[in-house]
Design a protein that fits this description.
Layout: H1 2-12, H2 19-33, H3 39-56, H4 59-75, H5 79-96, H6 103-113, H7 118-134, H8 138-154, H9 158-171, H10 178-194
C-alpha cells in the first residue's frame, strides 16, 4: 500500500504524468488498501481512475474501476449505491465479449440478490463459480462457495451448506489473502448460526 502511495505522489510531481500509469497505480493501491483505509478515500481514488478510463475510452479499465467501486459500496453495506457501478461493469464486460472481465461482476450481482431472492441467487452463484474456475480466480471461487453455503443454510438445506463450506475451505488453501479468509469465516459463521450450530469452533476476523 505504501509503495503505491509513493508511486502516486511521484507521478503527481510530473507536469503531465502518463495517465495510464496513474490509473494502474490507483487500482494497485486500492487492491492493497481495501478494508485498511477509509472507504471515502478509496472511493475518491476510484472516481479518479474511472474518469481516466472514460477519458481514454478504455472500456476494459473502466470495468475494473467500476467493479472495485461496487465492491467498496457492498463492503460498506450500501447495496443500492453499488448497483449502478455493478450493472455498468457487467454490461460493459458482456459487450466486450470478454468473459474473464465478468467474473467479479457476476459474483457481486449474485451477492446483491441474496437477501431479495436467495433461491434465485444460487443460480447466479453457480455462474460465478463456473467463470471463476474457468479463469482460475480462486478468490471469487472461495467467496462464491462460502456464499452458497450461507444461502443453503438460510434455506434449511444443511447438507448442501456443509458441502459448499468444505469446498470453500479447501479452495482457501490456494488463496494468499487474509481478507478473503476472514470473509469466508464470516460466511461460515452465518451459515452455522442459521443451522443452529452454536458450538462450532469458527473464527470471525
Amino acid at each position: 500500500m505504501a509503495y503505491f502511495e509513493r508511486a502516486l505522489r511521484a507521478l503527481e510531481k510530473i507536469p503531465d504524468p502518463p495517465v495510464v500509469l496513474v490509473y494502474e497505480a490507483i487500482i494497485c493501491w486500492v487492491e492493497a488498501a481495501f478494508q485498511f483505509r477509509p472507504y471515502q478515500e478509496q472511493l475518491d481514488q476510484l472516481a479518479r481512475a474511472e474518469r481516466i478510463a472514460r477519458d481514454l475510452h478504455d472500456q476494459r479499465r473502466l470495468v475494473k474501476a467500476l467493479s472495485w467501486t461496487a465492491d467498496l459500496y457492498l463492503a460498506k453495506g450500501l447495496w443500492t449505491r453499488a448497483g449502478p457501478a455493478l450493472i455498468e461493469s457487467l454490461d460493459l464486460a458482456e459487450y466486450l465479449g470478454d468473459k474473464r472481465l465478468t467474473v467479479r461482476p457476476v459474483y457481486f450481482k449474485a451477492l446483491m440478490t441474496t437477501f431479495m431472492n436467495p433461491r434465485a441467487s444460487l443460480t447466479t452463484l453457480d455462474q460465478a463459480l463456473e467463470l471463476a474456475r474457468r479463469y482460475a480466480d480462486r478468490t471469487i471461487e472461495a467467496l462464491a462457495l462460502g456464499t452458497k453455503s450461507q444461502i443453503h443454510a438460510q434455506l434449511g438445506e444443511f447438507g448442501q451448506s456443509r458441502e459448499n463450506m468444505q469446498r470453500a475451505e479447501e479452495t482457501l488453501q490456494y488463496v494468499d489473502s487474509p481478507l478473503t479468509e476472514s470473509d469466508v469465516d464470516l460466511l461460515a459463521a452465518w451459515a452455522y448460526l442459521a443451522m443452529g450450530d452454536l458450538q462450532r469452533d469458527y473464527s470471525v476476523a
